Amino acid sequence: MSKLYTFEEVSKHKTREDLWMIIDNKVYDITAFVDEHPGGEEVLIDEGARDATGPFEDVGHSPDARELLVKYYVGEVDLASAPVKVTSANASGASNDQPQGNPLRIIIPLLIVLGYIYYRFYS
Description:
Elements: E1 4-5, H1 7-11, E2 14-15, E3 18-23, E4 26-29, H2 41-47, H3 53-59, H4 63-69, E5 73-77, H5 104-122
Parallel strand pairs: 1-5
Antiparallel strand pairs: 2-3, 3-4, 4-5
């Protein structure tokens, strides 16, 4: 019989050095996989320490990715326990509650388009 973990127990494992995740009611210790994840470590850390079934399914992971999970399996989640809201911390330790993004990803393409329009019509 596999070990049962409550949502609260899983929620305590939310750092890069100790990261757990729930997928399909199974608990995985993915700490050793953080550096290998093709989508980057940030995605795992953001979704870690909670039920990540939805995001895992949304990405459309391959059968190989599902097979890889077996290696990190540590037990089952106790469905009688109450889910815990986990707030991730970024590198500075601040909460991720506010939207993040670099405004340059909008400004630079806008400048390129404006430059093209200027070149096309005023040159």
